[in-house]
Fold:
Amino acid sequence: MNLTDVSLLAILFSAISNTIIGTLWYSPLLFANIWMKGMGKKKEEIDMKGANLGYLLNILASFISAYVLSVFINLIDHVTILDGALVGFLAGFGIAACREVSPTFFEGRRRILFFISSGYHIVALTVMGIIIAAFA
Structure:
């Protein structure tokens, strides 16, 4: 497989879905209040200048993740949506969520932050895998 044999539209839609899921995941509708409590912060203490840079970097990371996930999924012959979901789930659970273990225990973070962050990665990458597989 050539590393350029990916759907740019799939990457774009996947990156957008990741951003939407992240926005909802860390909103008051879902986990914002629990996340802030776990961080030991109040809404007024959140640095919006730092948050804006975080949003920008997250969007960039979303495109990189979508591209890499697309390469993985395109390695499968006759890919189905279920295949895309499985690859996305495995990337979320087996890579992203497992990478959250170190900061949780070595940095002394509260365990609830591990579950919130890991859950976000698992859900977002699974959805991204589904979108990419739909274009494969």
Summary: DSSP finds six helices and no strands in the chain.
